[in-house]
Specification:
257 residues; alpha/beta; Uracil-DNA Glycosylase, subunit E; six-stranded mixed sheet; 9 helices; binds iron/sulfur cluster
Length: 257
């Protein structure tokens, strides 16, 4: 029997007695002054803000897929995965119901992960190529993977208000990592990225058109890259090929030098 390896948890220090306004102020201050990669992971895993997504993830974890019926599903929100000191942030869409929602690690246990971790390993951003289990010893190098929504959504489509509720974690990811290169996988991640950059004042004007290989340099020097998502919809149809995907990570590598 296989058992999902939950990420290491740290006891939450959040003050439960604060009013919503006080709590909001407290949380905001904490983002700036006292956040950490471990706290961020803890808060994501404990998050219950989206009832639809939480109910869906738990139902999937209970019902399971036939091929994984002997496994214990994670069924919780999926924290970021990667190097705590990473300057390369990869923004995906959301965990897969029988992938990360089962294994507890971003892009782990499904075909998208095969594509992503293979490309990361080839480009030197991963110590090995593996993607099936969270306890495989995989480590990322100068790279961290996050998502527009940290819970698996029905039909792989988080709703706009769910992405908006999850935005705090993207903001904190950027504040903690101060990335030099940000890669958005797919148009929804691209939109979420530029919405966040606009909110931070790092981007003004219209959102750049999404496309595979599109590159946008911000005034502060950060570079945003766009790539087609390595979903089966794109990889099975040939819309995204292995060389196309590899080129994105080779470009990120050059930009980080
Ligand atoms: S999608 Fe994000 S905000 Fe919504 S419950 Fe999951 S972790 Fe929380």
């Amino acid at each position: 029997m296989m058992t999902a390896m939950p990420p290491k948890k740290i006891k939450s220090k959040r003050a439960k007695s604060l009013t919503p306004t006080e709590k909001s102020t407290f949380e905001k201050a904490r983002i700036v002054t006292n956040d950490s990669v471990a706290k961020l992971a803890d808060d994501i895993v404990d998050c219950e803000r989206c009832p639809r997504l939480r109910a869906y993830c738990e139902a999937v974890a209970r019902e399971k897929k036939k091929a994984h019926r002997d496994e214990t599903y994670w069924g919780r929100p999926i924290p970021n995965f990667g190097d705590p000191n990473a300057k390369f942030v990869i923004l995906g869409l959301a965990p897969a119901a029988h992938g990360a929602n089962r294994t507890s690690r971003m892009f782990t246990g499904d075909r998208s992960g095969l594509w992503l971790y293979r490309a990361l390993h080839k480009a030197g951003f991963a110590n090995q190529f593996s993607y099936e289990n969270a306890d495989d010893g995989l480590e990322l190098i100068n790279c961290v993977i996050t998502a527009t929504a940290h819970c698996a959504p029905p039909d792989n489509k988080p709703l706009p208000d769910e992405i908006d509720r999850c935005r705090e974690y993207l903001e904190r990811t950027f504040a903690l990592h101060k990335p030099r290169v940000i890669l958005a996988l797919g148009s929804i991640a691209w939109t979420a990225l530029f919405n966040e950059l606009k909110r931070q004042g790092a981007w003004t004007g219209a959102r750049p058109t999404f496309g595979h290989g599109v590159e946008v340099k911000l005034e502060d020097g950060r570079v945003c890259l766009g790539s087609y998502h390595p979903s089966q919809q794109n990889t099975f149809t040939g819309k995204l090929t292995e060389p196309m995907f590899d080129n994105i990570f080779a470009r990120a590598k050059r930009l980080l030098k």
